[in-house]
Structure formats: structure tokens, C-alpha cells
TrEMBL record:
<feature type="domain" description="Histidine kinase">
    <location>
        <begin position="41"/>
        <end position="262"/>
    </location>
</feature>
<protein>
    <recommendedName>
        <fullName>histidine kinase</fullName>
    </recommendedName>
</protein>
């Protein structure tokens, strides 16, 4: 709130002192709005036919295709899924950047949320022969108020990356309670892996859109180069800041801290909605 006032005040100063600057700012805002609307329209228009392509590919794959057809259909399925992820990520970034993302504030169980994510990614851990660990500080309050969907998105992206870039190694998600005061808990989260690491000269840019390690890494591991952009923006939206420490060849740690209201008497969200 305080920040807003300061920002508003500085806008006023800008208006008083230098009219040209204000005009430039308004132009930039208009251009940004037009860009955002264009991106949103194009992405939505692409999504409808893509859903048809994905759906029909799925049906054909279920009809016992011949070996040669299976090869083409699998390739079609991969490309369809890639494009779907890509379009959804563009829409997501666009939504956050145009301040259209709304935050939920509901009761959730952090331990359950993290366990569900671990379970959903178990297959990748198994495939890559990774030791997959979840370390939760026993003092962490069980029930919190916040936005579990955004939080899941952040963890899914970071843990998925950690597993993807780690073969025969360790991927650990840890939660530490930093403070518990006036019904508010500050928690620090870290996702650590012993994978390929990130070169020093790439550390500053991995959070930028379409930034990927290198052509070879991209070819080998796939991906859109948008996941970390979304992670950074979502963490900031929740009031935190993402930090990255990584050594090429040794592994990476992505960490951030967030504050939550503690829900002492957890009510089932469905219960709450009952009349
Ligand atoms: P992608 O979809 O390509 O994985 P991200 O935005 O999630 O896109 O990541 C951007 C790039 O950062 C990746 O292509 C990879 O080079 C690097 N990266 C992200 N996480 C890790 C990690 N845990 N270990 C090594 N490199 C990583």
C-alpha cells in the first residue's frame, strides 16, 4: 500500500515537471495494451484448431495404427502437445504482464500439495534414475491461506526442470520455517539438483522468455524456454523473489521465500461454500 502511494506520488512529480515524459509513457502503455490484446487473440484463435488436431491424433492412436503410422502419429502427438504448452504459456505470461491474474486466498495443506506434486512427477524421477526427496521442516504449519494453484505451478515447473536436467542424481525440495509471528509464517523453499548446472554467463538470462541453455541442450532436453519466466513472475506476484545458484556440471538450487497467513482451524473449502 505504502509503495503504491510512493509510486503515485512519483507519477505526479513526473507529470508536474516533464509533460513529454508522460506522453511517452502513455504511448508505451497503449502500445503494450495493443500487443497484449493481439497476443491474446492470436493465442486463443490457435488453440481451437489445435485442440481438434490433438483430439483426432488421440483417437487415431487408439485405433491400433500400423507401425509406420504409429511413428507419424507419435510425432504429431509430440508436436501438438508442445504447441499447446507453448500457447498456454504465452497466454499465462500475457495475463500476468497485463495484471489480469487474480490471486486466490484459500485454505490449503502445504504438505499434501507438495506430496501430490512429488507423486505426479515420480515417473520422470524413475526414468532418470533420480533420488527424489521432500524435506519439510516439522515446525511448518500444516494449514495455510494462499493460492495453492499458483504455488503448484511454481513447484511443478521448478521440480520438473530439476528432474529433467538431472540423470542418476538427487533432486530435493526443502521447506524451512523462517519465522512465525502474529499468525503469519515466512517459509523458505529450495529446489536443489545435482544435474547439469547452468553456465555462469547464462545465470542472468535464464528467467527471460525463450532463454535456453544452448542449442545442444535445447535439442537434447526440449522445452519452450518460458517456464522460468512464468515461475519468476508468479513468485513475484505472491510477494517473493526467486534466487538461483548454479555451478555448471554440479547442479542448481532455485530458492525463494514467501509469507502466508496461518490457518489455525482449517475449514474444508467445500465445507465453507455450503449454505
Ligand atoms: P525450458 O522449457 O527450456 O526448460 P525454462 O524457462 O524452464 O525453459 O528454462 C530455461 C533454461 O534454463 C533451460 O532451457 C535450461 O537450459 C536452464 N535450466 C532451467 N532449470 C535448470 C536446471 N534445474 N538445471 C539446469 N539447467 C536448467
Amino acid at each position: 500500500y505504502k509503495n503504491n502511494i510512493i509510486r503515485k506520488k512519483s507519477n505526479l512529480l513526473l507529470r508536474d515537471k516533464n509533460n513529454e515524459l508522460i506522453i511517452a509513457k502513455e504511448k508505451a502503455e497503449k502500445a503494450s495494451k495493443a500487443r497484449s490484446e493481439f497476443l491474446s487473440t492470436v493465442s486463443h484463435e490457435l488453440r481451437t484448431p489445435l485442440n481438434a488436431i490433438n483430439g483426432i491424433t488421440h483417437l487415431l492412436l487408439e485405433e491400433n495404427p500400423k507401425k509406420s503410422q504409429l511413428h507419424y502419429l507419435s510425432s504429431l502427438k509430440f508436436s501438438g502437445n508442445y504447441l499447446t504448452t507453448f500457447i498456454n504459456e504465452i497466454l499465462e505470461i500475457n495475463k500476468i504482464e497485463s495484471n489480469k491474474t487474480e490471486l486466490e486466498n484459500i485454505n490449503f495443506n502445504l504438505r499434501e500439495l507438495l506430496k501430490d506434486i512429488q507423486n505426479s512427477l515420480k515417473g520422470i524421477a524413475l526414468k532418470n534414475n533420480d533420488v527424489f526427496t521432500l524435506n519439510i521442516d516439522p515446525n511448518t504449519p500444516e494449514y495455510l491461506l494462499g493460492d495453492p494453484t499458483k504455488l503448484s505451478q511454481i513447484f511443478l515447473n521448478l521440480i520438473n526442470n530439476a528432474l529433467k536436467f538431472t540423470k542418476d542424481g538427487n533432486v530435493t525440495t526443502s521447506v524451512k520455517l523462517l519465522s512465525l509471528e502474529n499468525g503469519k509464517a515466512t517459509l523458505s523453499f529450495a529446489i536443489t539438483d545435482t544435474g547439469i548446472g547452468i553456465p555462469k554467463d547464462k545465470l542472468a538470462t535464464v528467467f527471460e522468455s525463450f532463454s535456453q541453455g544452448s542449442v545442444e541442450i535445447n535439442r537434447k532436453y526440449g522445452g519452450t524456454g518460458l517456464g522460468l519466466t512464468i515461475v519468476k513472475k508468479l513468485i513475484e506476484l505472491l510477494g517473493g523473489e526467486v534466487k538461483l545458484e548454479s555451478i555448471e556440471g554440479l547442479g542448481s538450487t532455485f530458492s525463494f521465500a514467501l509469507k502466508f497467513e496461518v490457518n489455525e482451524l482449517p475449514l474444508d473449502n467445500e465445507e465453507k461454500q455450503k449454505p
